[in-house]
Amino acid sequence: MVGQTLAAQAPAPDDRNYPGALGTTEMNLNALEHIAHTSVEQGVHSGQPRLMKEIAERGIAEGHGGDNYMAVFEILKRR
To answer: Which intervals hold domain NADPH-dependent reductive aminase-like C-terminal (predicted)?
Structure first.
C-alpha cells in the first residue's frame, strides 16, 4: 500500500503539486508532535521524529500547511 501511494506521488515534486485532500502537512505535524513527545517520554531516540516535525513546521510557515506532506520537498530541494 505504501509503495503504491508513493509511486502515485512521484510526479508531485516535478509538478510542484501537493493536493491535501487525503491529508495535510498540518495534520502530519499533529502526529509528528505526538511521536516526538512520546519518543522523548519513553527514552527512545527522538532525533528523526523531531527533525520531521521541524521540517513540517517550516513547510507550514512557508505556506504549505494545506498541502500534503510531500510539499516539504520544496524546502528540501533548495539545500
So the answer is: 2-78
